Amino acid sequence: MLTVATLFSNSKGNCAFIASETTKILIDAGAAAYRIEQSLMDLGASMDEINAILITHEHIDHVRSAGSLSRRYNIPIYATYKVWQEYTGFGNIHRENQIQYEYGMTIGDLSFDFFKTYHDAVQPLGIVVMCGDKKVGICTDTGIFTPTMAEKLRGANALIFEANHDLEMLWKGRYPQNTKRRIAGQFGHLSNEDAGKALTKIITKDTQYVALAHLSEENNRPELALQTVHDILQSQNLLETLELQVAPPYHTSKLMIIK
After folding, report:
1. pLDDT, tens digit (0-9, with 9 covering 90-100), for 93-111
2. Is residue 144 a contact partner of residue 80, using CB atoms and an 8 Å limit?
């Protein structure tokens, strides 16, 4: 069995929790340490039980408290070679807790696969987590969705998937034009419509849950993201056995339990 939840999901802080019966991990740690500790308690877990923190990329909304949590609880941080080489914001991390991603790596009874995402970071990745025949996919912070990404994510039982902005809200909003172009560009973020179209390529009969993630508070609304993606998936008859939710920005999502 796998238990999956987002603790926070927004443009200011992101963190997800994945647990098997014997192994518990965080994907990113982009909120204050005390808030992550409290959110885990809300789920009936604690930082003392966390076996690893996996980092998708080095932007502050994904790494804010990773270093302090690693030091406080002696937890290894997993990140790419380039993140370890170029990012200094983790602070002083024990060498044995500085672990570079390897293809085919395992942590406890969890195994991992990775795929390149397209974002303005040094080496951004999406992550696939597997336990036996159970599979979870995490795909946020990417400006485009490629066939390789679809191949990696197809058939996941649960998906944490970016629906960052509504294009009309973005272009009519108050952001500077260069910021708007960055968000909508190849190395920015997926829109609601992008997310819906991408999900039609990866949802199968095995997909039980989709949590729409990393919503912009400035350029999106939860109900708009949900409706846009819902309509696209419904047009392809992909909602019959699927639970679709929006990951809340500042508290835990509904649990996604894969048996």
Report:
1. 999 999 999 988 999 999 9
2. no
